[in-house]
Amino acid sequence: MIHPDPEASSSDEFKGFNEARRIMWCHEARTRVYERFKQTSLIGDPNAAAVHVDNTTRADRVFLVAFDKAGQQVGVDTLYIDEPDQHLDVASEFDHDFTGMDVVRDSQLDQAISRENGWVVNLEVLRTYEPLADRRATQRAVFLAHLQDMMRNGAVRGFLFGRGESGDADAA
């Protein structure tokens, strides 16, 4: 049996890599939620303010129940999961708890939340999500996370941000 080098496993040598990986996983979750919701009629329903995502009852599908601002049910939909990357895990940027969404006490939405068999998407936040802007921000964050590692191990000693030869201000 080959044992990993104990010094390497406990060091912070790849701290930036691990942070970059976490950033990418979060981006993938946001993108997946957005893309999957675009496949439903719920995102375009002006009456729907929140959607309860039941991602625990069945492994092959996700049950979606839409609620209005008063917390009353206004629609339902089902997303089928044919591939593992279609599962709707929690994307905290859209979650009602993290976005500070108000939930009417003792409403149908409040009851759905209390069952603890999924999570709730704040549709107001999801509707304003900009995939291209998120992708660019994620690229910058991943680059900066990797930059930590490269500076620490001496692969990079200095850098400049700004316009490169291509004239692209987003280029890092």
Short synopsis of the structure:
The chain is α+β, with helices and mostly antiparallel strands and 172 residues long. 40% of the residues lie in helices and 14% in strands. The protein is elongated and about 55 Å long.
Characterise this structure.
By secondary structure, the chain is an alpha+beta fold. It has one domain. The protein is 40% helix and 14% strand. It is built from 6 helices and 4 strands. It has helices spanning 6-10, 15-38, 96-99, 108-114, 123-128, 131-152; strands at residues 50-54, 61-67, 73-80, 119-122. The protein has a 4-stranded antiparallel sheet. The N and C termini lie far apart (42 Å). 20% of the residues are buried. The model is unreliable at 1-10 (pLDDT under 50).
Major pleated sheet: 4 strands, antiparallel
Radius of gyration: 21 Å
Q: Would you count the extended β strands for me? A: 4
- As laid out across the biggest beta sheet, the strand order is 3-2-1-4
Report the total helices: 6
* End-to-end distance: 42 Å
Task: Please tell me the total number of domains.
Answer: 1
Strand content: 5-15%
**Inertia-based shape:** elongated
Helix content: 25-40%
Which whole number gives the mean pLDDT? 85
**Contiguous uncertain segments of 5+ residues:** 1-10
